[in-house]
Write a structure and sequence with these properties.
The protein has 285 residues and is of the alpha/beta class. The chain contains 13 helices and 6 strands. The protein has a 6-stranded mixed sheet, with helices on both faces. The termini are far apart.
Length: 285
């Protein structure tokens, strides 16, 4: 792009406006020649989003800057903060996929990949037999889980323990009676709000590695967000129950979250049917 004379309004930019433009990589040329004709200035247009992107990618060759809008704060957006994890997504996922159990747990404990790290008390990694045939995957930690650092505690956890006991499983046992329990998210969302898509994406490599290390014969997906995250679907649980799905090659059985069952005890019979389907699936392998 050729260098043009500085319009009269450019000399009126204050230091803050010039600094913001410099953040975008745009240099304001201030030649000694006469200002550009007013007719030329009148043809300038308010920069579009595409124009701003082109300017941000442009080389540092001196160029004329488009006319600022009324408010300096609207003319050039403030620079976005750097992401919490500067590692490219593919590189980060590959790095996590190579971790062993101790390194994976340490990495989760120190994770700052999303904003949930600022409000958590503890990360909630997982619990149970790390070589179990059964793996239970829930949604996100709640208040009690955040305090204790363990998934499925409190009334919902007690109901889960009874459900597992009914099929001969326990979080405290190993071998044929063992089970490994984890959540899609490793940190509690503030006020137990629903997980956000970006949070799920950031946490997914951890869960994928847990599944790879456990190598379960069956996954019991509990709750809408766990089910939709694992199966990449927006379908409700009611339409996904009663069938065998797959995650990373592992059979997945969809069922209701214990917290939901505490509010809707009539659906406990449906969850029992889901547990029976899980047992039949494992026995049929």
């Amino acid at each position: 792009m050729s260098v043009v004379d500085e319009p009269s309004w450019v000399s009126g930019l204050d230091a803050r406006q010039r600094a913001m433009l410099a953040e975008m990589g745009v240099k304001v040329w201030a030649p000694k020649s006469a200002p550009a004709p007013a007719a030329q200035a009148s043809t300038d247009a308010t920069p579009t989003r595409a124009d701003e992107g082109a300017l941000a990618r442009a080389p540092a060759t001196p160029v004329a800057v488009p006319r600022p809008v009324t408010s300096p704060a609207e003319a050039v957006p403030a620079p976005l903060p750097a992401p919490a994890d500067p590692v490219l997504p593919d590189d980060r996922a590959a790095r996590i996929a190579a971790l062993d159990w101790p390194s994976l747990q340490e990495t989760v404990a120190a994770c700052e990949a999303c904003g949930l790290c600022r409000s958590r008390r503890h990360t909630v990694f997982g619990v149970g037999d790390s070589q179990a045939d059964w793996m239970v995957i829930g949604e996100a930690p709640g208040e009690q889980e955040d305090l204790k650092g363990e998934p499925f505690v409190g009334p919902a956890g007690q109901l889960l323990d009874r459900m597992l006991h009914a099929v001969g499983r326990s979080r405290t046992d190993g071998g044929e009676r063992g089970v490994y329990i984890a959540n899609v998210l490793k940190c509690r969302p503030p006020a137990n709000r629903n997980p956000q898509p970006e949070e799920v994406v950031r946490c997914e490599p951890y869960l994928r590695r847990q599944v790879a290390l456990v190598q379960p014969k069956i996954i019991l997906a509990m709750g809408r967000f766990a089910v939709q995250s694992l199966l990449r679907t927006d379908e409700p649980i009611g339409r996904l129950r009663g069938r065998v799905h797959r995650y990373e090659g592992v059979p997945v059985i969809v069922t209701y979250h214990p917290a939901y069952l505490l509010r809707n005890p009539a659906d406990k019979a449906k969850s029992w049917a889901d547990l029976c389907l899980a047992m039949d699936t494992v026995d049929g392998q």
